[in-house]
Design a protein that fits this description.
Mean pLDDT: 87
Structural class: mainly alpha
Low-confidence stretches: none
Radius of gyration: 20 Å
Distance between the termini: 47 Å
Helix content: 55-70%
Number of helices: 3
Length: about 60
């Protein structure tokens, strides 16, 4: 649970902005998406390798 302390006389928009920043920083949505489905460790590793290959290919340093 995210807690944002609102200071005396603080604008609600400012407090909401701090809440959104904190929400983004701790990665709540990313964690929820990861927990939606289970992926085997071997599948996760394979996707990481494919992602790395794609990035290298985009950079023009892929030699096979």
């Amino acid at each position: 649970m995210i807690i944002v302390n609102v200071k005396e006389g603080e604008n609600i928009e400012r407090a909401l902005k701090r809440y959104k920043q904190k929400h983004r920083r701790i990665g709540v949505m990313k964690e929820l998406r990861n927990r939606k489905h289970f992926a085997k460790p071997s599948v996760e590793r394979r996707s990481e390798i494919l992602k790395a290959r794609y990035k290298l290919k985009k950079m023009g340093a892929f030699a096979q």
